[in-house]
Amino acid sequence: MSTLQTEQHGFKAHSDGDWENRAPIQTRSDRFKSTNLADFPEVTGREVNWKFTPVAQLKDLLSGDLQGGVLPSEIGEAEGVTVTTIPMDSELVGRAGIPEDQAAANAWGQAQVAQHILLTSPERQTVTVRRTALTATATAAHTVIETAPQAEGLVIIENTGSANLTENLEIVVGAGSNLTVVSIQEWDADAHHLASHNVTVGRDANLQHIVVSLGGKVVRINPSVHLDEQGANGECYGAYFADAGQHLEHQVYMDHNAPRTRSRVAYKGALQGEGAHAVWIGDVLIRRVAAGTDSYEENRNLTLTEGTRTDSIPNLEIETGDIEGAGHASTTGRFDEEHIFYLQSRGISEDEARKLVVRGFLIDVIQRIGNEQIENRLQQAIEAELEQSVLA
Description:
Belongs to the iron-sulfur cluster assembly SufBD family. This protein is mostly beta strands.
């Protein structure tokens, strides 16, 4: 019997089909994008960007019918700030990026309209967007936040109450402007919230993007920041506290697409209770054109009890050797006993020492918001979490 092999090993198509189109994505920027839901295959949970997400709980947001229109919210007034409703086919929509996943494409196709928030004042203005009137109805939303050149602003999005929401948030940071956008998730315990935040940062402009996730059954916030002009600076910070049965997920993409750009990414989370699950994926891409880049990303997780799960995956792609620096770090663990011992040596009880460590761990991010009232309220929310924890 002849065993001579006449064909190259691996030359035939695999049994799973579509062999010619299944080449792995070589870089983060190659991920497929479309505003059309039909262009995306059905989500199975095996995809690289969905494999940690409880997709079975999210079928209506991924591919079901959604309620569109103007999202019920209260938007504060400020000098040099205009809020308008624009159609989805407006030239103002799509400048910061288009969907990379099915949930975002479903929201794009059914949002019907977008809210456009434009900040033009050179003096720092604060705009608060309060969302308190959503329901369990599957809902789509689209928001565009934009700063004119040289403008200064702080936009705070407060999410509370019930929700079953999938949305796209676009952020357009004009040349020389400084913008901080804060997204706070304090949803009710049964809420589902999927959000794609696409950002483009102009020449010599600065963006600070802060996510605080405390409430909700399933929360998935994915910021994609594109440093598209020379001298652009992007900073992404996050704080989260996952309780039993709660899934909090953040996928951050920092795209250096111009010379002498700078980025910092730092997310910190605490977890307690059976089934508490936190996911953080950090992608940094330094393109060939991004000479002089300075970049660093990190994720730190503090597990307070048994039965929690953390998935923390930093990724760094560098296409040029002409950079100032780039690095990443990820840690997950229990309390540092040296810190606890030090506090106890100062007369603080062990339980209070552990709570102090958690406070300091998370408040380091919250203090970056730059609004004392919001910072104090979030610190109180963390205190409430700690009072209900096993540390109390």
